[in-house]
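Saturday, quiet lab. Running sequence design on the C-alpha cells for the scaffold JK sent over.
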C-alpha cells in the first residue's frame, strides 16, 4: 500500500473519534484555512488561521486533531481596520534563505485604504511567532485584490495567486506573480481570464498532488444564469503553465449533476493509492437544475485518482444547513484529512446568538477506497 511520505514517517494514530462541532474560539471569527505541517519538530500537527477583522488568530492541534489551542495572534500594520481572505502555506523546499518547513500566511490587507495589497507573513517556528516578509501584488482603490494563495512550482519558485479587479479588460481575473526568494516579485501574469468581461474568476487554491502534478480549484462569478459563482478546476504539469487563460476549466459535478456555488476550497487525502483523493468543500450545494439541494451545508465532494475520477458526496463534518451567499455561513469551509485518510477534520463558520460569526470544527468519517457505493 502506498501512503503519503508524512504518514509513512510517523506512527499513525487512530482516526479521531467523530465529534460534535465545537467552537475554535469564543470570539468572532470567519474564513478558516488549515494545513497539516510536513516538516520540523511539529510535523504532523494541524495549523489553522481565522480572521477577526484586522486580527489573524493562529491555532494548532496535534497529529490527531483532537484539541486546538491558540498559539499566536498578529495584525498587519497595513490592514487599515480590515484584513481578509488569508491562506496558510508551508514551504516544501527551500526558497531563497527560507528552508523547507517555513510557514507563510498571505492575505488581502488595506481594504479601506487607497491600495489593497496581497501581503505575506512568515513564521519560522510552526506558527508561534510571525514577521512580515513581502508584498506579492497590489491593486489601487476603488478596486480590490483578493484571496492570495501560495505554491512552489516545479522550478522551485514561489508563486502567489490572487483574484485581481484592476485589469481594464476583465472585471476580475486570476493572476499570479513569481519569486525566486519570496521577497522580489515578478509582474502580474494572467492565469484565468475569461470572457465576457463581466465574468469574475476568483478564490484560487493550488495543491501539489502526490504525483507531482498541480491542481487548481476556483470559482467563476458574474454569470446571469444558474451557474453563478460555481466551482471549476484545472491542472498543470509544472505549477507554472496552466493552459489557455480564456478556458473556463472543468466544472466538478456528481453523477446526478450536483455542484458547488461560492467559495470552493480543497484539501488532499491519502487513500492507499499513488494519486490519493481530492476533497472539495463549498458554500452552497446546488442541484443540476440550479436549485439549492436538500444536502446544502451538510455535504462535501470527494474524487479519487488525484481528482481525475467523478465526484461523490460525503457528509460534511460541520453542518451549516442555512448556508447561502453570505460572508459568514459556510463561507470558505476548510478541512484537513487524518493521517490515515479515514476521516476529515472540517472547519466552518455560522452565526451564533447575537448575530456574531463563529467558526467550529468537527471530525467526520471518509469512505474506504474503493468506495462501497
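Result came back. Writing it out in full:
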Amino acid at each position: 500500500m502506498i501512503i503519503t511520505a508524512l504518514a509513512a514517517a510517523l506512527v499513525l494514530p487512530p482516526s479521531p473519534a467523530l465529534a460534535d462541532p465545537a467552537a475554535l474560539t469564543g470570539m468572532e471569527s470567519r474564513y478558516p484555512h488549515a494545513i497539516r505541517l510536513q516538516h520540523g519538530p511539529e510535523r504532523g500537527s494541524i495549523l489553522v488561521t481565522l480572521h477577526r477583522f484586522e486580527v489573524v488568530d493562529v491555532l494548532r492541534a496535534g497529529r490527531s486533531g483532537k484539541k486546538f489551542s491558540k498559539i499566536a495572534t498578529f495584525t498587519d500594520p497595513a490592514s487599515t481596520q480590515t484584513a481578509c481572505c488569508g491562506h496558510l502555506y508551508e514551504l516544501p523546499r527551500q526558497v531563497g534563505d527560507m528552508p523547507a518547513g517555513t510557514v507563510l500566511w498571505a492575505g488581502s490587507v488595506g481594504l479601506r485604504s487607497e491600495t489593497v495589497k496581497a501581503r505575506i507573513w512568515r513564521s519560522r517556528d510552526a506558527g508561534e511567532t510571525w514577521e512580515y516578509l513581502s508584498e506579492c501584488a497590489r491593486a489601487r482603490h476603488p478596486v480590490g485584490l483578493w484571496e492570495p494563495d501560495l505554491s512552489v512550482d516545479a522550478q522551485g519558485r514561489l508563486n502567489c495567486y490572487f483574484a485581481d479587479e484592476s485589469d481594464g479588460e476583465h472585471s476580475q481575473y486570476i493572476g499570479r506573480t513569481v519569486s525566486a526568494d519570496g521577497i522580489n516579485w515578478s509582474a502580474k501574469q494572467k492565469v484565468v481570464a475569461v470572457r465576457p468581461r463581466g465574468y469574475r474568476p476568483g478564490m484560487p487554491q493550488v495543491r501539489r498532488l502526490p504525483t507531482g502534478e498541480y491542481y487548481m480549484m476556483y470559482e467563476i462569478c458574474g454569470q446571469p444564469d444558474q451557474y453563478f459563482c460555481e466551482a471549476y478546476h484545472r491542472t498543470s504539469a509544472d505549477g507554472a503553465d496552466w493552459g489557455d487563460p480564456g478556458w473556463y476549466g472543468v466544472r466538478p459535478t456528481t453523477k446526478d449533476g450536483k455542484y458547488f456555488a461560492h467559495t470552493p476550497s480543497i484539501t488532499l487525502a491519502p487513500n492507499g493509492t499513488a494519486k490519493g483523493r481530492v476533497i472539495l468543500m463549498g458554500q452552497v450545494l446546488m442541484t443540476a437544475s440550479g436549485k439549492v439541494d436538500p444536502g446544502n451545508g451538510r455535504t462535501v465532494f470527494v474524487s479519487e485518482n488525484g481528482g481525475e475520477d467523478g465526484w461523490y458526496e460525503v457528509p460534511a463534518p460541520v453542518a451549516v444547513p442555512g448556508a447561502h451567499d453570505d460572508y459568514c455561513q459556510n463561507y470558505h469551509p476548510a478541512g484537513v484529512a487524518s493521517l490515515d485518510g479515514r476521516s476529515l477534520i472540517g472547519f466552518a463558520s455560522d452565526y451564533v446568538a447575537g448575530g456574531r460569526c463563529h467558526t467550529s470544527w468537527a471530525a467526520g468519517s471518509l469512505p474506504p477506497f474503493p468506495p462501497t457505493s
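Notes for JK: Residues 232 and 251 are 4 Å apart (CA to CA). The chain is about 0% helix and 45% strand. Ask whether to fix the surface positions before the next round.
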